[in-house]
Structure prediction request, 171 residues.
Amino acid sequence: MVLYGNVQAFPQSKKLWDDLLRLQKDIEGEGLPGKLVLRSGWGVAEQRQLLAATDVQVQDSDRGTGAAEYTEADVSANGGLQMGPPWIEGIINRQGVLVDRSAPGTGNTLIAADASPDAYLESLTWAIERFHDGTLPQWQATSVKLSRNLEALLTSSEYLRQLDRVLALHE
Prediction:
């Protein structure tokens, strides 16, 4: 797993980063399969390289905090599948079509059954199994096709929806 996250200039962000570094050491020390790669201080060039190598991108936004995060990291244009929270958050879950696990090549968006770690793990395990059995590229090809529909219209619409929500709170 690769996690790119720039440490922000406030204590909670630094604490989260330090916790992730400890988790990284714990995983390495236990000799388990897989690896956690952490990176802070990256830019657009590195993001492009990462997106080109990504099979599944998880954007686990907190409820009510997102508008159009997905447009900042368009994994679909690079053939990756998108995974978001089990609730509608900005356009994370609306940028494509829900993956139909029984129909290879149908959909590009994975959504966990609920917010539990086990539900996320189940969805990611499914994607890893499809990678190993050679069928994941069928969904990845669909992801590229679906990315063509992502234009400024979706982002603009979501920003207007969020603005309307804020204005309604002040009325």
User: Anything to note?
Assistant: The longest helix spans residues 11-30. The mean pLDDT is 86. The longest strand covers residues 81-84. The radius of gyration is 17 Å.
